[in-house]
Amino acid sequence: MQSTAFFSARHLPSAAPPVRVRAVFTNPSTATDGNNSMAASSGPKWAQKTITLPPQRRGCHLVTSKIMKEIGPDLSEFKCGLAHLFLHHTSASLTINENYDSDVRSDTETFLNKIVPEGRSAPWTHTLEGPDDMPAHIKSSMFGCSLTIPITNGKLNMGTWQGIWLCEHRDSPTPRTVVITLNGI
Amino acid sequence: MQSTAFFSARHLPSAAPPVRVRAVFTNPSTATDGNNSMAASSGPKWAQKTITLPPQRRGCHLVTSKIMKEIGPDLSEFKCGLAHLFLHHTSASLTINENYDSDVRSDTETFLNKIVPEGRSAPWTHTLEGPDDMPAHIKSSMFGCSLTIPITNGKLNMGTWQGIWLCEHRDSPTPRTVVITLNGI
Amino acid sequence: MQSTAFFSARHLPSAAPPVRVRAVFTNPSTATDGNNSMAASSGPKWAQKTITLPPQRRGCHLVTSKIMKEIGPDLSEFKCGLAHLFLHHTSASLTINENYDSDVRSDTETFLNKIVPEGRSAPWTHTLEGPDDMPAHIKSSMFGCSLTIPITNGKLNMGTWQGIWLCEHRDSPTPRTVVITLNGI
């Protein structure tokens, strides 16, 4: 007991600066009620999981619920943190966009096909893997292959209309691997 | 005292590997002078804050100073870390680009309007929310809705000419919500 | 001894929730064999390093090996974490794309030049720094200036065909500065 009480006592002065912004700060020293093991329990945590998204036809797909099914229970362990999603592929992409009207997703696919030429009209040298491959690589770099989303009180902290999209840029559907890393307290 | 001294003693061997790369590593065990409460004070901290950026007209806007006014004092608590900015919207975007000549921002808006057709010439199915809505969604995925910026010695570690831009893609200005998460030591 | 044993004992109950997802969780309390100093050794670590990539001609360049030469030894200290790369410039970009056929990189450069007009045909107002400057700024925001990549067992956890590209958008090659931040356990 003595030692624990003493250790807690030593914490307080060091926690002073964060306390100045207590409203926004949460850290092992400010998050604790002064009980040492509580401080330990609210210490930084890391979670990492590799999931596979099922094959999807070429186009943009809302996958928020598929992702949540995989990480929901893990997310609930975090009061404050960040969720990082990393797609293991160079011919698909991850982006955040509207979660309601599916027309937004089909119009986005229309746009991507409009600005990245494919087939005869295309100037590509890399054609060995099919006419849709080089355009897929370009679209992947345009939207990117990773997302970082804030975690607040055990949930992804996104806007009302935001959802996670997997954009499949190849013609033939294939399973897509995503490494998900959670970090927080 | 005994317990604290003993606890510190237990730390030292465990800190050995990081010490090999002491120049670049900073962590609770290497950052401490061996004093337990100091180690606690330099332990990982998390801060999360939701801010509102005022309505801006359609176009690209430099918001670095607005962001700094909100997080400056919090940033000063971090020697090393990452700042994550997450926009809660699908018709605006956050990007990092030139912080000096406003022509760079207006030319970027010119580019976005040039490659994303709007109005009669546009092939969009999603038109219910106005002719500027579907183009806004596409532009949002092109530039993205989040940024991660390194923190070094209490400041955002950006290049001399880099600034944070909020790109408003809708015609009617609205306040925009940004969740800012700081993590570091 | 008493105090340390007692401190460990206090840890166990607090670690209970993470243990529920032990398979994916790794954190100071679950990663330990119950030995306090082990827990300390697997505690969160931060590393931050500023590197310079050598001048490259305009175009897309695979720089994975150059980056690994700089951070390989540091990475090996992390069982689980995230690597963040931040380019200090607004006329170049970082992206992840195919690491094998160099045609993919030259075709991507062809695409960028195709959709961002340059010279007489270009509508830009910002021309003081040369005809390639404004297009370079736009391309930088299209692909972005930063990357976040998962770290697993001391290595960057990328897909088989993924590599890190530095895209140089200016005509005259210049050294490019990248701030690399590693965070994990």
Q: What's the helix count of chain A?
A: 5
Oligomer: homotrimer
Give the distance, in angstroms, between the N- and C-terminal Cα atoms of chain A. 26 Å
The largest sheet of chain A has its strands arranged as 2-9-4-6-7
Can you tell me the CATH topology of chain A? Jelly Rolls
What is the share of helical residues of chain A? Answer: 25-40%
Q: Largest interface, and how many residues on either side?
A: A-B, 56 and 47 residues
**Secondary structure tally: strands of chain A:** 9
Low-confidence stretches of chain A: 1-41
Chain-averaged pLDDT of chain A: 82
Domain module tally of chain A? 1
Order of helices and strands of chain A: HEHEEHEEHHEEEE
Q: Per CATH, which architecture of chain A?
A: Sandwich
Biggest pleated sheet of chain A: 5 strands, antiparallel
The fraction of residues in strands of chain A falls at 25-35%
Write out the CATH superfamily name of chain A. Answer: YjbQ-like
Determine Rg of chain A (CA atoms, Å).
22 Å
Reading off the top of the CATH hierarchy, the class of chain A is best stated as Mainly Beta
